[in-house]
């Protein structure tokens, strides 16, 4: 029944009224399965993409050597390494005289700047953290190529990426859906008030839950379209309002009691 409801939630607005009569357990199972299905699908897609991009990234790493606290990259020549699919880069500037500012790094989409003796990393998008290669337990690293790194650690890197994705994606969906359900519920209250429809609070809440499958489909369409980058809040709110309007058409209007003077 839950799977059938998921499919009907995409196109059958009248069916929402029947779903709203079902128990809270049914709504909870509905949203749980939605999270499971969409998390698995998203994780698989991202894992395949990440594996390909990571391989390209690692194999393109210039020759690297760390000796006596000094880093030698690309035979000591400045280099920039772009991280595929993220629009950011890592720079090697061996003769850098002054620490890079947070503004310069953000303006050039740089997440880290390496020199012979130090590395500067953006921290929380508000500051630059400095570390030296001679601090801590830093060890000497013999001259190594990107090809050698991937051939040695490629499988480990891919497995670590997949595990990370399969942990982060479900957690992200849970937090996102809490927010999306709240905004869908808000849209529902507004539309119900404007249309003067007789619908109870619990019915409206369950309707907001059931709307999330169309919302997730819309998120997929926007997220996976190449070159499209948009804040999903506005599209989600508009979609929720449109669905609520169509669903509420199947509820009766409120009766207005007029008391005689």
TrEMBL record:
Q: Which domain of life is it from?
A: Bacteria
Read off the Pfam families from this record: DUF1189
What keywords sit in the KW lines?
Membrane, Transmembrane, Transmembrane helix
Transmembrane ranges, per UniProt, are: 27-50, 160-192, 213-234
Know the name of this protein?
DUF1189 domain-containing protein
Source species, please?
Elusimicrobium minutum (strain Pei191)
């Amino acid at each position: 029944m839950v799977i059938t409801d998921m499919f009907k939630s995409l196109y059958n607005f009248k069916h929402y009224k029947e779903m709203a009569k079902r128990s809270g357990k049914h709504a909870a199972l509905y949203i749980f399965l939605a999270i499971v299905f969409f998390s698995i699908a998203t994780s698989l897609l991202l894992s395949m993409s990440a594996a390909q991009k990571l391989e390209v990234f690692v194999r393109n790493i210039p020759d690297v050597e760390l000796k006596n606290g000094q880093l030698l990259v690309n035979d000591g020549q400045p280099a920039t390494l772009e991280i595929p699919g993220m629009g950011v880069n890592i720079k090697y500037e061996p003769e850098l005289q002054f620490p890079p500012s947070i503004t310069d790094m953000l303006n050039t989409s740089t997440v880290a700047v390496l020199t012979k003796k130090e590395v500067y990393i953006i921290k929380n998008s508000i500051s630059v953290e400095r570390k030296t290669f001679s601090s801590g337990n830093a060890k000497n690293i013999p001259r190594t190529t990107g090809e050698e790194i991937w051939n040695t650690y490629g499988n480990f890197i891919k497995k670590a990426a997949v595990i990370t994705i399969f942990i982060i994606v479900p957690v992200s969906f849970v937090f996102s859906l809490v927010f999306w359900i709240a905004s869908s519920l808000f849209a529902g209250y507004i539309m119900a008030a404007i249309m003067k429809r007789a619908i109870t609070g619990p019915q409206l809440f369950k309707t907001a839950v059931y709307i999330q499958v169309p919302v997730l489909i819309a998120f997929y369409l926007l997220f996976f379209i190449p070159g499209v980058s948009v804040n999903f809040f506005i599209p989600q709110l508009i979609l929720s309002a449109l669905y609520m309007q169509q669903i509420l058409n199947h509820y009766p209007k409120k009766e207005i009691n007029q008391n005689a003077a």
